[in-house]
Specification:
The chain folds into two domains: 72 residues, no CATH class; 181 residues, Zn-dependent exopeptidases (Aminopeptidase). The chain is 44% helix and 14% strand. Helix 2 crosses helix 3, helix 6 crosses helix 11 and helix 8 packs across helix 11. By secondary structure, it is α/β, with parallel strands linked by helices. Strands 2-1-3-6-4-5 form a six-stranded mixed β-sheet, with helices on both faces. The longest helix is centred in the last third of the chain and has 20 residues. The chain binds zinc ion. The site of zinc ion has 6 residues, from loops.
Length: 272
């Protein structure tokens, strides 16, 4: 009874073939099986199983196979390459935590020039713009803060784990006693993995494409990069201690351009 039911789903001898992923790897392999198993259906089922098809795939393949008897006695075919892993990297499937550094009682780097914004305010503005851009690209975005409040570093990091974030991005602005030092910087953790380095490289490339000066990618043992399980990036948006950078960071249009470049780099990473 079972056999009769099985035979009913055997395909009519039609033209066309099975997808490479479902093809028996070589005719030779199937021939050996044919000597042991009398029923053509069984041979095909085992052959397909050997080729890497799941049971569900096998039934799909059977429908599209040409005449099974001819198929199993053909000369050996070149082995089909293993199917590429189908990892969806579209940004719309991703959760990204955007962290505006400092806030509340912690102002961050202090203004060095008259009328200069505080670091915590620069960070929040850029982070909000990055979040908006990523959101408009379809990402699920979580911000650590959306207003001027103080948050412990650990609470920021924990948010990444709580939301099982695919990426944690922290936005800061730098300061140095050397007033000539300028440019953005991209920080990853000392033991950052390959994926994290790749995100950093995508953002660096985006900075280059968008004419934003970047000092490079630096490994650092920062708390917000270390205390969670997501790939983590910390971006220093420029030097508040450098006159040119300070002027740029005070300019809303520049902050928008910078935020777009960050979002573009992140989107680039997830689209590859
Ligand atoms: Zn900072």
């Amino acid at each position: 009874m079972r056999m009769a039911q099985s035979r009913r789903i055997l395909p009519p001898p039609t033209a066309g073939g099975c997808s490479p992923a479902c093809r028996p790897s070589t005719g030779q392999q199937v021939d050996i099986l044919a000597l042991r198993l009398p029923a053509a259906f069984s041979v095909l089922a085992v052959g397909l199983a050997l080729s890497g098809c799941t049971p569900m795939d096998s039934s799909v393949c059977l429908v599209h196979l040409p005449n099974p008897i001819i198929n199993i006695r053909e000369a050996p075919r070149a082995a089909a390459p293993p199917p590429a892993p189908t990892i969806s990297k579209r940004i719309s499937d991703r959760t990204i935590v955007v962290d505006a550094g400092h806030g509340g009682k912690d102002p961050g780097a202090m203004p060095k020039f008259r009328g200069q914004m505080r670091e915590k305010d620069i960070n929040l503005d850029i982070a909000t713009k990055v979040a908006g851009d990523l959101g408009s690209r379809g990402a699920r975005v979580v911000m650590t803060r959306t207003r001027d409040v103080f948050l412990e570093l650990d609470d920021r990091a924990k948010l990444a784990d709580r939301h099982r974030a695919d990426l944690f991005v922290s936005i800061h602005a730098d300061s140095s006693a050397k007033k000539w030092v300028s440019g953005t910087g991209i920080h990853i953790h000392t033991r950052a993995n390959y994926e994290t380095m790749r995100v950093a490289q995508c953002i660096a490339s985006s900075f280059r494409r968008n004419g934003i000066s970047c000092r490079g990618i630096v490994r650092n043992n920062f708390h917000v990069l270390r205390e969670h399980n997501s790939p983590g990036i910390l971006i220093e948006s420029g030097y508040m201690s450098n006159a040119t950078d300070a002027q740029r960071l005070n300019d809303a249009a520049y902050r928008s351009r910078l935020a777009s470049a960050i979002a573009e780099g992140i989107a680039d990473h997830f689209s590859r």
